[in-house]
Every structure is written in structure tokens, then in C-alpha cells.
Queue: 2 jobs
Job 1
Amino acid sequence: MANETRTQSPAAGPANPTAPADVASLSFERAVEELESIVSALERGDVALDRSIEFYERGEALKKHCEALLNAAENRIEKIRLDRAGKPQGVEPLDGN
């Protein structure tokens, strides 16, 4: 079929790989899953050049989104402070001294 639509194959990629606006709505796990799918398709080398460029651009948007989510998570992580007896006393930022 000439107009066959593949939705399950990683090589088929995202429905619209050049629309980064929808990337912002993805969870970290979903974004990583899609990024892995794109990398896999590009590594196989069975994607046309134009589609490869679209995949690369989508992958770059997904990478930036994942980095932003990781940075936000790191900023929220707190370290538990212990008193001299080893009992929890409070919390402080992870990078705080």
C-alpha cells in the first residue's frame, strides 16, 4: 500500500517530528522512550535523509526537554540533615553545605 501508516515501528517515528510544542507535554519517561526510538531508527540507517533530519530535530527537542525536567527535579531534591545522634533534624538543599 502506498499510503500505509506505520504506528508501531520506531522507524515510523513520531506523527509530527517537527512540532516541538507537544514535547513540553510529555513526561520524562515518555520523552526518553521516544528519544530512544528515534536514536534506534537513525542508527539502523533505514530512514530517508529528509526524515532523518526531522528525527534529529525532534530528538534535539526531546533531549532539551529531558534535561529541563532533570534540572527541575535536581532543584527539588533535598538532603535530610541529621543531628549528632543520627536522627533526622530537617532538610537542606542537596548542594547546600
Job 2
Amino acid sequence: MRDRAGLTATEGARLLGISQAQLSNIGASRFGVSPERLRAMARNYRCSDIAYIQGLLDLAGERAPGRWETFREVLAAPLLDIAELEHHATGLQSANTSHIPGLLQTTDHAREIFRQVVPEFSRSDIEHRVSHRLQRQAILDRTASPPYQAVIHEAALRVPVGGTTVAKAQLRHLLEQSEREHITIQVIPFAIGAYPGSGQTILYVHGSAPRLDTVSLDQSHGPALVDAEAELEAYRLLLARMEAVALTPNSLPGGSVPGAGSPSPGGKGYRWNRAFLLLTAMRHSLAAPPEPFGTVPCSSDQRIFTTQGTRPRIELASVREQMSTSPPSGPGSKD
């Protein structure tokens, strides 16, 4: 608000009757801010965006000071900030090329990811980060969960993070999550080739007002948060283009790889994303590789994992049989 009002930090602090150091600490999230002070800021900084002001008041009023306090000594501040923003989000979008999105990772998958960080984390640091990640995922289990749309490249599905058992459990988890009403998972196959945003890891958090939107970019030194409107618009466009080239829950079977919005001849809508996950799961548990992606449809109620003795496996013959005989899913159904 102060920047948009064209005020310096000194001028802004004077209008609020506080020191410049106090204002700086509030801006850096080192100090909390009360709803009363937020209203004073809006009044003195001549902010007339009611939705934005109300969104800030909701954040200040509902913020639980101890929610992430146990992680403050071991995690970077941007990680705590993005977790708080997710908690208040009205919608979430992500795009990942080489990793499964953090909000969709299993415990063992996340633990293995943190084990690979250089310089190495201590065992306690790893467990703190795993715990933080799992607590972030709780937003997807709330009664009124925000809609979440995740775009994942095929490369991330094929990397056996933590070994076969962990990788297979992770794929099973993705399949289960993809069935939830508020979660949409799209896959970008290798066959697409180059595409906008390749190589980037993006999390877009939609706030209760557009000015509260924030993008988190995953980098080797930690997340970078972006909230400038010009940059947000660029990332909205980038995510839209990535979603457009990804397979959709009702993309067409038959050798080609259409983008989003491709019509289905005769109303047939096969679950391509689920087929991708299914066939990748096969690759993790069978010696013989499955058919190439882009050729096999799959019904939504497919039983994927069975057990034989103590070794989990996939009934390849029955899967192929059901794929060839099952009627396609309805065009309006959600994967």
C-alpha cells in the first residue's frame, strides 16, 4: 500500500505514528500487525481496494502465531510465508518438470528428496522439513479445500525417487489424489517436446483478492516469492500455456497427443492422465516395459495394484484386457 501511495518508509512510518524500524519489521514479517493498524495503514495510505483490504484483515485476524513457530529456527522465512499464504488461498496451481509437487508428495518421497540436498541436512533438519511439508498438505484435506491444479511432466513420474517401493507408493498416491473433486492433475508427455516453462517449478497461490496473489519459484537456495502484478500476469500466462499442452482428463486416444480443449469424436473421453500414471507404475514393477504412452486408454475405476506373495505387482494381462474392453469414461467425469 505504501509503495502504491508513493510514500517513503519515513513518511509512511510518520503517518502511522511508529518508527521506521517498526515499519520495516512489519514489512519483513518479523512483527505481526493488528487489524486496527491495517485499517490505519489503508486510511493513511489512501488504499481504496476493499477486497484487498478485507483480504489483509482476514489474514491478520485468522493468523495463528504458533502455526509455523516450531519451524522458524530451521526453515527459511519464505517457506513459512508460502505455507501461510496456502492456508488462506482460494486456489492453487503448480507446474513441475523434475519433481512431484510438494503438496502431492508422500512422506517417504519427501524424505528422500530432502536427503539429496547439498550441503546435507542433519537427520533432525530433514524430519522438520518433512513435517512442515505434510502440515502444508493439510489444506487439501479441509472441508472447504481450495481447488488445486497440478501440471507434472512425464520425467517426474519416471524417476524412481527412493527406489521402486517408494516410487510405486508415490504413483499410487497421485492416482488417489487425482480422484478427488478439488484436485486436477495434468501430465505433459515427452512426446510434446519443448514447451513454455520447461525446467521451471512454479507454485501460484491465488489470494482472496488479486493483489494478494503470490508465486513461489523453487530454487537451489530456497524459494523466491514474486508478487509484482506484471510478473504475476506473466506466470498466469505461462501456466495457462503449460496446461494447454498437457494431457487433459478427457484427451483423445490414438497415437497423437492433443492439447487441452481437443474435442472427443463420438463423445468418447478416455482418462489419459490416469493411463500415464498407470503405465508409469507398471514400469516400476514389471521387467517388461509397457506399451508406449499415447496409445492405451484407461477407465477411471481400474484396479491397478494387487499383491502376490510379499511382492506388490500389477496384473498386466487384466489391465490390458480391461483397457481393450472397458467403455470410455463420460466426457464430463473428473479424473
